[in-house]
Specification:
383 residues, mainly alpha, Hypothetical protein af1432, 2 domains, 18 helices, 61% helix, globular, binds magnesium ion
Length: 383
């Protein structure tokens, strides 16, 4: 392995785990974090959670699992080029979406609306809550007991109030400091992955047609080159050849812009990175193109009537489940009843605890589990 830069996060200098454990043998601390994430229950659930398209709509659409693998792949490539910690990047990328609800953003918005009086719901905070608390895999502690740097990388955004509640891992939000280069890479690799795979999935589903994308520079400039190099190319091959060039161009642009920012700031340590403005970034031109692409996807894919029908249904399912469990907590599986300490749920604080347990249960559901659970609770004739 090439030597890491001086401002990369080093496994040997990790700020460690909340509960001290013996050092791993034959792997470093961040490799161990990655392994814990891959073996977690929440990670396996990602396979059956919607990215944009509901899981049962087709076998070839991205799920949260394949999305997370794509993010890890893109982020690792960038980390290697910039000589920062690839193992840490992989751990953060694979964990970044663990807290997502079923049914993608529609599910998160619905659950957040339900949780308004109880501190809200935010999938990114929930990812941290999953690895810190909800996984039940170890005899000695709750959660996965990951390294500080992995946890800090998972927490992409955070309100000042939550930051205060979270203590150490939230401190940078109060001090207006940036996360590590590794975490910054994951954040933008996420964007590279979803913008591109949503185009691919949108075209595959037929909700988007290629002609619509002719006015979107991020796509059309590559599609034109492909058509020039391969006259007569069409359909799937044109789409895939274009999308792969888009991903490549974005990663290269990111590496070039980041290198130039790094050479301007000349950080020597992780501390310098955290004090500097964002170092990992796209060039201004690429940033603009990505912004336009996002607007296009929002207007033509995320707000497509067929997608809205699905998200509307999803919102209703999440809302119904939340309402039913809040009203009748004894319908919850025993471990969530225990978490919510239901027998004493009479003060406002108890109600918040109960609501949080309900939110944890719902957020952990896969799409089809939520659909089944909804049927079990609401359909006459189902048990
Ligand atoms: Mg993501």
């Amino acid at each position: 392995m090439t030597e890491l830069t001086s401002y990369a996060v080093q496994a040997g200098n990790s700020r460690g785990r909340a509960i001290v454990e013996p050092a791993p043998t034959e792997r470093n601390e961040f490799q161990r974090d990655r392994d814990r994430i891959v073996h977690s229950t929440a990670f396996r659930r990602l396979e059956y959670k919607t990215q944009v398209f509901v899981n049962h709509e087709g076998d070839l659409f991205r799920t949260r699992l394949t999305h997370s693998i794509e993010v890890a792949q893109i982020a690792r490539g960038i980390a290697r080029s910039l000589r920062v910690n690839e193992d840490l990047v992989e751990a953060i990328a694979l964990a970044h979406d663990l807290g997502h609800t079923p049914f993608g953003h529609a599910g998160q918005d619905a659950l957040n609306a339900c949780m308004q009086d109880y501190g809200g719901f935010e999938h990114n905070l929930q990812s941290l809550r999953t690895v810190d608390l909800l996984e039940e895999r170890y005899a000695a502690f709750d959660g996965l007991n990951l390294c500080f740097e992995t946890r800090e990388g998972i927490l992409k955004h955070c309100s000042p109030q939550h930051a205060r509640e979270l203590g150490d891992v939230g401190r940078r939000f109060l001090e207006n400091r940036r996360p590590s280069v590794e975490a910054q890479i994951c954040n933008l690799a996420d964007e590279i992955a979803y913008n591109n795979h949503d185009i691919d999935d949108g075209l595959r589903s037929g909700l988007l047609v290629i002609e619509q994308l002719d006015n979107v520079a991020a796509f059309s400039r590559h599609a034109q080159t492909v058509r020039r190099e391969y006259p007569g190319i069409a359909g799937r091959r044109l789409i895939h050849e274009t999308v792969r060039r888009m991903i490549n161009a974005l990663a290269l642009d990111l590496i070039t812009e980041t290198r130039s920012r790094i050479s301007a700031v000349a950080p020597l340590s992780l501390d310098d990175v955290q004090a500097a403005p964002a170092l990992v970034a796209f060039s201004t031109e690429m940033h603009e193109q990505q912004k336009n692409l996002k607007v296009f996807l929002r207007d033509h894919l995320y707000r497509h009537y067929q997608v809205l029908r699905m998200t509307n249904k999803a919102r209703r399912i999440v809302g119904d489940l939340f309402g039913a469990f809040m009203e009748e907590p004894s319908l919850l599986p025993p471990q969530y009843q225990q978490m919510s300490r239901l027998e004493q749920a009479d003060t406002a604080r108890d109600h918040s605890t109960k609501a949080r347990a309900v939110a944890d249960y719902i957020a952990g559901m896969t799409d089809r589990y939520a659909i089944r659970e909804h049927r079990r609770l609401f359909a006459v004739g189902e048990i």
